[in-house]
């Protein structure tokens, strides 16, 4: 039986294409590219949801709280070799009123819940990799998503990595900083085709050692 790798994230894991508001094909999306890189011994499972937050209930759209869904999600896919968590972009929305530090705290709550899901091999805690997502571009405020996102999103996104790196180190959880991968020039908060490819390669390089454990 192939071991599972679960990619838990938001629209950048789902594969949102801002150019025409469609979904990138599976072979373009970063989990799909990762699947081709890891080979036939692993099953890469996409668990991306547009608008997903780490811990916040969105007052405008239901079902987007990542903390509430992580346990049933992982148990449904168990046994799991590795959980890759990339959240935080949606948490920057002005209506949530969170600081970058708060967003990092929320992501770590999801991490802890994933650990305690006991969805890993032999009902143990699964391996976990936390990714700091690519930064929201400063020009997002003048794009079509600007009013929905609100103010200060780019600033919060830029500051997230420093807090997330410290918190993952303290928790001894593997960490990958993907903040330097550029977003598109449409809404400045979603990956391009090339961005998906770059992210998949970064993840593969990072997890090669983790998968040997």
From TrEMBL:
Note the SUPFAM superfamilies from the entry: SGNH hydrolase
Q: Which residues form the SGNH hydrolase-type esterase domain?
A: 7-197
Gene3D superfamilies linked to this entry: SGNH hydrolase (3.40.50.1110)
Which Pfam family is one of this chain's hits?
A: Lipase_GDSL_2
Q: InterPro entries this protein is in?
A: SGNH_hydro, SGNH_hydro_sf
Signal peptide positions on this chain = none
Name-wise, this protein is: SGNH hydrolase-type esterase domain-containing protein
What is the native source organism of this protein?
A: Lysinibacillus odysseyi 34hs-1 = NBRC 100172
């Amino acid at each position: 039986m192939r071991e599972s790798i679960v990619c838990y994230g938001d629209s950048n894991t789902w594969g949102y294409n801002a150019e025409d508001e469609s979904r990138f094909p599976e072979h373009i999306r970063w989990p799909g590219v990762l699947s081709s890189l890891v080979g036939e011994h692993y099953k890469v499972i996409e668990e991306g949801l547009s608008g997903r937050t780490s811990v916040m209930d969105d007052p405008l759209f239901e079902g987007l709280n990542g903390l509430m869904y992580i346990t049933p999600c992982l148990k449904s896919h168990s046994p799991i070799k590795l959980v890759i968590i990339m959240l935080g972009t949606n948490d920057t929305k002005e209506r949530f009123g969170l600081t970058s530090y708060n967003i990092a705290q929320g992501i770590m709550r999801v991490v802890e819940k994933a650990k305690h899901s006991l969805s890993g091999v032999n009902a143990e805690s699964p391996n976990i990799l936390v990714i700091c997502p690519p930064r929201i571009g400063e020009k997002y405020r003048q794009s079509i998503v600007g009013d929905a996102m609100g103010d200060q999103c780019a600033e919060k996104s830029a500051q997230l990595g420093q807090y997330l790196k410290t918190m993952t180190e303290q928790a001894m959880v593997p960490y990958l900083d993907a903040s330097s991968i550029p977003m598109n020039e449409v809404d400045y908060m979603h990956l391009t085709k090339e961005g998906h490819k770059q992210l998949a390669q970064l993840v593969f390089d990072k997890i090669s050692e983790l998968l040997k454990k």
